[in-house]
Please model this.
Amino acid sequence: MTCETPQDRRRLRHALVLVSLTVALACAVVAALALGSVRIPPGEVLTILTGGAEPSPFRTIVLDVRLPRVLLGAVVGAGLAVVGTVLQALVRNRLADPFLLGISSGASTGAVLVLVLGIGSGIGGGITTTVAMPAAAFAGSLVAMTLVYALARRGSTMTGGRLVLAGVTVSYILSALTTLVLVVSARPEHFQEALFWTLGGLGSARWGTLVVPAAVLVVGTAVLMALARPLDLLLVGEEGATVLGLDTARFRAAVFVLASLVTGVMVAASGAIGFVGLLVPHAARMVVGASHRPLLPVAALGGAVVLVVADLAARTVAAPQDIPVGVLTALLGGPFFLWLMRRRPEGAPV
Model:
């Protein structure tokens, strides 16, 4: 008779969680492809996905309209959840999230500046959305993250309340800057397009918009998985991590840049979608613990499931009206954030 060790049980639980989330994501994708203003039988959806269907209106709806949107939702949800998980480790505070810390607002400001100024629009077809927009969003998110981190620190300390306050302040400033740019541009169409980055949505998803976010998600998550041990060291505190051989300042700076890159690319593709990076890491930690090697893939799959389901609800709850998915995630995430603020003491670590 073999004796099962605690490590074996943890591995088994982790594998079961990954399998369960993969099945949940597959079911969510099929449901999102089947439901909408035109309802398609799930069996027909599976036939279309496996290439067995003849050309038909259903096939066009599934492959050309809904599938890019669903896949973009999965990619963005996974990316935001991974970034939220890493940010919470970097600042040792579970209130950290790309939206609450103003990083998403910085990315939105960068994207809107490209939209208003028309950067890249005259170089070649599609270069604004595929290159200039993600690059500007990355720059904006990096500037916002730097500002928030600098404002939140006082000497060598940083409390959760100060971090959130700095994030909200920077977010308001950047939102005001975005509005000022739109007003000065004096072009009504810019206001309509800018709502996309303000409220968040997946309605503009096309096959061409998937390439950059998917590539950044895969590469970024792989790099963060390789950095799982240093991320775990940060959980013991600044002094403890330094004693164990980690250059915390340099490591934080490098990971902040990577987190800003992932956030910027996701916001450029979907707009500012809040609270996915706050909710999902908490749920993932409750299931697999705080160690980042098992935590990051669970958070990625969980974020994908949450955003695909949220976007399905956004498309169907008030059909034929398409509600911005960022509105729904805020309605769910806002109460959770308030509960978390009341539950955790000031300055409590991760």
The mean pLDDT is 84. Residues 57-90 form the longest helix (34 residues). The two ends are 39 Å apart (CA to CA).
